[in-house]
Amino acid sequence: MTTDTETRTALVTGANSGLGKAIAHALASRGLRVGMVARDRIRGEAALDEIRTQTGNADLHLFLADLSDQAQIRDLAAQVLDRFDHLHVLVNNAGTAFPERRLSPDGIECALAVNHLAPFLLTQLLLERLKDSAPARILNVGTRINTAMDFSDLNWERRPYRLMRAYGQSKLGNLHYTFELSRRLSGTRVAVNCVFPGVFRSNLGGTDGAQGLFWKLVDRLIGWALPSPEAAARPLIELALSPEWEDVSGDYLAKGRRLRPPAQTLDPNANRQLWTLSEQLTGLASPSS
C-alpha cells in the first residue's frame, strides 16, 4: 500500500453497525479516507458521527443504498466513483438472512441478492478504479459452511425455503466469486480474498421485523459468550493494510490462516458457471453471453 496513509481510501458496506462499523472505525483510526455504506440514513449518520468523534478523522463519507436493489447499487457505485479519485480497499461486509423467502425489487431471492449479487455487482462496477489505484485489496466477508449452491434453482423457486440453507448458499457465492475474480485479476496488483471473521456478536438480519426478532433471540441465548465485532475486525484490518498480505490473493482465510473451502468452490468450472449466472442476474452480461 502507499506509504502516504492520508491518500488511501477504503469503502466498507454495512458500515453502520457490527463488524462493518468496527472495520470502518479501525480504518479511520489509521488515517484512511473511509466511505461508509449504510441502508438507513439516521443510523448511518450516527455511526459516522461516532467514528469521527472517537478517531478525530474528518475524512469520512456516508453513502446510502439498499443492497437488495440493483438500481441503488449502480447509483452507489456512480457516487463513489464521482467522490473518490482512488480506491485502495473495498470491504464487502454487508450480509443478511431471512426467515422466509422474499424477493428483491429485481425479483431475486433477497439473501442471494444481498449476500452474493450485491458484492459481485458493486465490485465489478468499481473494479477499474481499484485497478487504477493498485496496489489495492478486496475483502469479501464470508462464512464457514460446508454446502453447495444449486445453480439450477438459485432463486428457490422449486425447493422448500430454509433460512440457514439459503443464507449458506448465498454466502458460498462469495467464495466462488473470490476465486474466479482472483484469476481474472492476475497481474493487476489487485488482491481479492474471502475472509471468515469467526463467530461474534452480530445483528445479522437487521433489527426490524421477524428476522430481527430471530437474531435478537440468538444474541440473548449465546451472545454473552461471543467476541465483540471489534475483536473480529482486527484480522481483517491486517489483511486490508499489512504489507505482508499485499500479494496474497484468491485465498479463504480466518485469523490469518488458510481454510479449506467447500469442495464445489474448488472447481474452476463451477466458479465460472456462477460468474456467468451472476452477470446475467445483474445485467452485466454482454448480448452475446
Automatic annotation (TrEMBL):
SUPFAM superfamilies: NAD(P)-binding Rossmann-fold domains (SSF51735). GO terms for molecular function: oxidoreductase activity. Coiled coil: none annotated. The keyword Oxidoreductase applies. InterPro entries: NAD(P)-bd_dom_sf, SDR_fam. Keywords: Oxidoreductase. This is Short-chain dehydrogenase/reductase SDR.
